[in-house]
Amino acid sequence: xxxxxxxxxxxxxxxxxxxxxxxxxxxxxxxxxxxxxxxxxxxxxxxxxxxxxxxxxxxxxxxxxxxxxxxxxxxxxxxxxxxxxxxxxxxxxxxxxxxxxxxxxxxxxxxxxxxxxxxxxxxxxxxxxxxxxxxxxxxxxxxxxxxxxxxxxxxxxxxxxxxxxxxxxxxxxxxxxxxxxxxxxxxxxxxxxxxxxxxxxxxxxxxxxxxxxxxxxxxxxx
Length: 222
Description:
With 222 residues, this protein is mainly α. The protein has helices at 5-16, 21-33, 35-47, 53-65, 71-106, 113-134, 140-143, 145-150, 155-180, 186-219.
């Protein structure tokens, strides 16, 4: 049985308070605006990756378990928020454009124009899979929208892939929060490990790339 809205909001605030600023901010949005508040939080999370979806989504699921909003509303609005945030970053990539990207790339040390050309060719071949699966990978789920905009992936295709991938990701985390109840914050611990692993792999890959470039230049190899 669901609690009355006021009682549910009170429990949600009490559960969120120990989590600090982001959880309290997200709880306030959900308590005040329900589904649209959760959608707004996720839209901002997409534009600003440091805002963790692994906190916002399970918290929204917990709110649903307390009767603040329904599961259907939670999934609809968070998926809509994901699409809106992704389209904003897609627009940034589209406005920045391919020519500006090449001009900016040419100014970077240790890189060549051919590297960017190869990256563009890879995205042309695998862009749909990258956008779809990237929506389910922490950190990458936000960043993947920019190259999609730069490469001018057809917007309807981008929106469809983003909505599908986001719905899967959102459903997993929202339902986890719903089932875990007061222990919804456990989800963030596990997803946070994945996020750190992704960042660590990116740093290692970047370090390896830079090392190879430096060695190549010292040896005079192309």
